[in-house]
Amino acid sequence: MLLKKYIKNRRKLKILFLLTVIVLIVITVVILNISPNVNSTERVLDERFIARIYGGSGGGGGGSGMSGGRLEQPPLKSPRQNGVIVPEKYDEHKLKTRIAQERVLQLKQEQQQQHNAIEAGEEHAKLEATTTGVHIFYSAPVAWYKTKKSQLVAPRVQLRGAAKELLNDVSDAVLSSSFATSATTLTTTVKPVRILNTAFYPALGLYKPTTSLLQKHFDNIHNCGIGVLILSCSGKSGEVALYRELLELAPSYNLSITFEISVAGNQSLEFLQQQLEALRRYSTAESFYRVYSLSRKRLVPVIYVSNAYKLSDTPAGRAMCPSQAESLRNLFDGYFIGHIRLKNHVDIMRRLCFEGFYNKLPSNGATFASTWKNWSYLKSYALTYKMLFVPTVGPGFAERNKFPRHGDIQRHRSNGRYYGVAWRTAILNHVGFINIASYNNWPDGSQIEEVMPKAGFLDYNPGAKTKYIDLTTHWVVNFLKTRHEAAAAVAVPGQPSCYEFLNNTIC
Ligand SMILES: *[C@@H]1O[C@H](CO)[C@@H](O)[C@H](O)[C@H]1NC(C)=O
Ligand SMILES: *[C@@H]1O[C@H](CO)[C@@H](O)[C@H](O)[C@H]1NC(C)=O
Ligand SMILES: *[C@@H]1O[C@H](CO)[C@@H](O)[C@H](O)[C@H]1NC(C)=O
Ligand SMILES: *[C@@H]1O[C@H](CO)[C@@H](O)[C@H](O)[C@H]1NC(C)=O
């Protein structure tokens, strides 16, 4: 019916015929032109595939392809007959071998890359090893145990309470055995109960400062790129021999040593005099840290003074100024860096003729000076009055203390992020010196030294036990780079640059 209708209409029939012819031509062209192309692509794919799959192991031992840790692309060796590739049979064994080889190679390359990275890092740290722009608090010996004073005269009931607290506190065999021994002695003589003072457990155990241990520590600190150790000088006689040993050991690790004296418990002039006298004992040592003063035209030691702000309106404080008749500077002259907490403490430091100030406590927000966002204020104050601001950075703060210090000063490490923000803030403020609290102040939980994971103790997970030492190296390198750039930017040719004290020179 339809056809008849079309046949009747000759014009429509013509169109239909034409369309059929066009379609036929198109189909023919497609078949003639495209099919060889498809064929050739297939052949190329096939060749590549075979070369990849069988090429390397075609000669038998696939291991020959590997030389110098790199897999060389094997030449195309596919068997051909009259120029046509004869696909090899699928061989599961060969395929598995290849996959295993590739995996081994990949691991090897990853290892090589890591190795290179580590080598580069070490080289860098060694290169900058003698930087005296970074100081670190070092404890020798570490006060592992806390002795409860009340226990000295405490009756039995209280001792039991303390003992129970100890057992609850630390689930540690060493401790419970030490408790057991002290418990037996308790029945006869009243001895102080020793309570472990740390929230982390050191990888080296509850060590004593032996020569080999000090060497190990100095090596670690040196490899971080840190040049100066800060020791607490209490003036006690027991400390002298140990500190002399430290001073003798330091030069072979390119380390210098400076001291922190404390006026926390006594702000009398006599006491301060005694402290400075104690420092003079060490001042002849080669490794005693000194900077060259452009204004005084000689080398002067840098001394930290803990709780210096308490010297406000005291005779001892007034005696710090060189202009005073009875100046303490006649006894011991140096660059005194005073510990501050509050905003007005910087004015106290300036009035008392201190050359600089530091915040000491690494707990962000705990005090005005310890608050990171206040550091730009402190830096500009220092710049205005030609003083030094030495920010104290730390990886965190964790006191294991039943009676923690006043205020909330505990700071979580946040997997290294806390340490990172502290460093970055200090670096961006373009300070000349940074001090780190601490290498091994375990009682404060601010140490960067290696830890050992242990039940009942904190550790650095996730991450290696050397995590904070590695992070320190990273930040020291970062600090030096920025400092060089900053100094170069403000350098005036032909004039001594006091800006960043690049070579231990202070104006
Ligand atoms: C100490 O520094 C000197 C010169 O800067 C260098 O030659 C020496 O290798 C350094 N020593 C160590 C142990 O890095
Ligand atoms: C401070 O130290 C001096 C000198 O050692 C001493 O005479 C004085 O009694 C001490 N004062 C206090 C309050 O401890
Ligand atoms: C300094 O830190 C304190 C917190 O300790 C904060 O209240 C204050 O606003 C900060 N001051 C400045 C100038 O940033
Ligand atoms: C350190 O730098 C100052 C100022 O740039 C310069 O006068 C002095 O000679 C330098 N000292 C050393 C030991 O390079």
UniProtKB/TrEMBL annotation:
Keywords: Golgi apparatus, Hydrolase, Membrane, Signal-anchor, Transmembrane, Transmembrane helix. One of its GO terms (cellular component) is Golgi membrane. Residues 59-82 are annotated as: Disordered. It is a single-pass type II membrane protein. It comes from the Eukaryota. Gene3D superfamilies: Glycosidases. Pfam families: Glyco_hydro_99 (PF16317). The chain crosses the membrane at residues 15-34. Residues 59-68 have a biased composition (Gly residues). It is found in: Golgi apparatus membrane. GO terms for molecular function: alpha-mannosidase activity. Its main location: Golgi. Belongs to the glycosyl hydrolase 99 family. This is (Mediterranean fruit fly) hypothetical protein.
